[in-house]
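Dear Dr. V.,

Thank you for agreeing to look over these. As mentioned in my earlier message, I'm a first-year student in the group and I'm still getting used to reading structure tokens, so any feedback on how I've presented them would be very welcome. I ran two proteins. I've put each sequence directly above its structure. The first is here:
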Amino acid sequence: MTEAPIPQAVVAAVAETKNQANIEMLMEVPLKISVELGRTRMSLRQTLDLVQGSVIELDRLAGDPVDVFVNDRLLAKGEVVVVDDKFAVRITELIDPQNKGSKG
């Protein structure tokens, strides 16, 4: 008695189910999300002179997009918005995953 070959569609469906189960296992993994408004360079003296109310000038203009990092890798650009009296970021552009941008 010879066994009939398993149809390719069945093989693909089983593989897809396994992939979904593997992805489900990762869905609750915590990630570090950070949003960068801008950067600047300061000397140690300038840093020590900071007091409450000091203003630190950044390298971006008001209204420029902010960078959104996931685990220190650039994921997106967005704009700062206010939602229920809290700051939030609206994603305006997803960065190509081939882009090797990283915070640093």
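The second protein is here, in the same arrangement:
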Amino acid sequence: MKTIYDINEIKKIIPHRYPFLLVDKIIAMETKKITGIKNVTINEPFFQGHFPGRPIMPGVLIIEALAQTAGVLALEMEENRGKLAFFASIKEAKFRKPVVPGDTLILEVEITNARMRIISCKGIAKVEDEIVAEAEMMFGILGEQKG
């Protein structure tokens, strides 16, 4: 897998930081499609409480990882550079299999509609070619990033 954006380049595009930066690298990007990677390790802070003895990545954080991947794509559009992407809605979220330490999440997002400052997309999270979660998401593009 060729890396298009590493973690340092992702940090220049989206404002998220530890412990909420949930995309490790981008491996594919087209005009309306992007693929990101999240390596899930036992060192993730959420595993301390979800669940001790049988750690499972919270589904909402899988959706957040998809959203951050979508944010990289949206904020790399010429008209959106330097701005912020804010969640507007999440629909049709489904969680199909647990994600555990050692898994590599493959985060695939496709923009389905982009008008003015609103972007709609569909995201699918996979582990070893099996869908573990999916959702339709909408974002508002607003303002300018600070520092």
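From my reading of the second output: Residues 7-142 form a domain with the Thiol Ester Dehydrase; Chain A fold (CATH 3.10.129.10). The chain has one domain: 7-142. Does that match how you would interpret it?

Kind regards,
E.
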